[in-house]
Amino acid sequence: MKRMFFVSIMVALASQISIGLMSSDFRVSAGIIFYVIFLFYYEDLKPIPTGILSGIIVNLFRAIMYYFTVGSFNSAILSFQIEILFYTFYGIIYYLLTKRYDNKNLNSLFFILFISDFGANVIELFIRSIISSTSFPWEIISTLTLVAIVRSGIVWLILNLLKHYEMLLRKEEHENRYKRLLWLTSQLKTEMYWMEKNMDNIEKVMANSYKLFEMINRDEDRESWGDRAVNIARDIHEIKKENSLAIRGIKEITQKDLKDQKMSFKDIINILYETMRKEINRLGKDIQLEVSIDENFYTLKHYYLMSIFRNLIMNSIDAILATKENGKISVIHKAHTEEHIFIVSDNGVGIDEEGLKRIFSPGFSTKINYDTGEINRGLGLAIVQHIVEDQLEGRVDVESTKGKGTTIYISIPRTSLEVDKI
User: Per 3-state DSSP, what percentage of the chain is helix, strand, and coil (rounded to 5)?
Assistant: First the structure.
């Protein structure tokens, strides 16, 4: 509601730039240009209520300006009130056309704006002619057509310029992120080297431990048991130290280099959608992935959100068998007053009651490949719960029916996620 009032006031201020086309009080103004631009960028704005409110505030501003100029209201008030109809019908026509045509396509938008502008002006003039008991001024139709073309063209030009400017900014941002990603990858590879090196050391420790076990089992060379045990303990301590250094290095990278600029939730979902679609295609599964966003917002916690949704969607993909037809995964976002609700559901194999009790335990998994014997690590939901509850102060709930599917509900406070766009 605050945004609607802000937009209406801006439209009213812009409407003070106007031109009278007839001897009557009929005027065309720049207010409608601002009205449309705000509607385009603020997707949550409703055209009809915003149009009505804009018309009322425009009427109020005009009346105040008239009073300070002339010193009285006289009969001008009725004329100004009629102008409310222009913004109201503009909003109605705009709403009806955008339901049928894509208003995000700027060429389609030009057509929508032209019809809305011309239609609203004709309706206003028709009502004025009825009230004043005069004939409809057909001679002004060509002028109204020109006005509609000019105003719609100005909006089209402004939106195109803004679109290209945003594309340049986004391209620069993507290039900077790519450079940071390359640098980050090189640093992570250094840490991976130490972890891979430790794999060899772990194999040696396992071999020495098993050898000591056999010696104890056969009760041979008792004198060397103590030294061998101490050597194994020392090697394990070295492995632990190397791993601690690697983990600390990775943590420093993620806490420092992964600090990035804020990102919109819509961009996060778009990236995830494209990535998960490729994964579904790679696996050759018949799965439809659907995404619904209630309200866009900006956040600094985009890595957390990506991790959450990637784990949940991957779990859902795994839960839908390759032999199943018409598999479906949906990601639904609902914006409430105090929190954001995220719902991820699938029509996969589901989880029984016993499994639901252990679903957040690290290592628990319902997904086993009986052909290869490979088992899923079972860390997906444990990671999700840790991020949501410990890092984002939210909560996770699960509903599932064996053989029908699973639904995950995540609630996160707005204060834990949102930052201002600017």
Answer: 65, 15, 25
Cα 314 from Cα 291, distance rounded (Å): 15
Identify whether the C-beta of residue 285 lies closer than 8 Å to the C-beta of residue 317.
Answer: yes
pLDDT tens figures, 301-310:
888 898 899 8
Q: Which long-range contacts (CB under 8 A, 24 or more apart) does 245-248 make?
A: 245/194, 246/191, 246/192, 246/194, 246/195, 246/198
- The residues, any chain, with a CB within 8 Å of residue 176's CB and separated by 6 or more, are none
Q: Which CATH class is domain 263-419?
A: alpha beta
Domain boundaries, the chain: 2-136, 263-419
- The amino acid occupying position 391 is Q
Residues recorded for the chain: 422
C-alpha separations of 368 from 13, 151, 318 in Å: 65, 63, 10
Q: What is the C-alpha separation between 67 and 151, in angstroms, rounded?
A: 28
Q: For residue range 19-43, what is the model confidence (pLDDT) as tens digits? A: 555 444 455 677 888 888 888 878 7
How many Cβ atoms from other residues are within 10 Å of residue 105's Cβ? 11
The C-alpha atoms of residue 419 and residue 422 are separated, in whole angstroms, by 9
d(CA 1, CA 408): 32
pTM of the shown model:
0.52
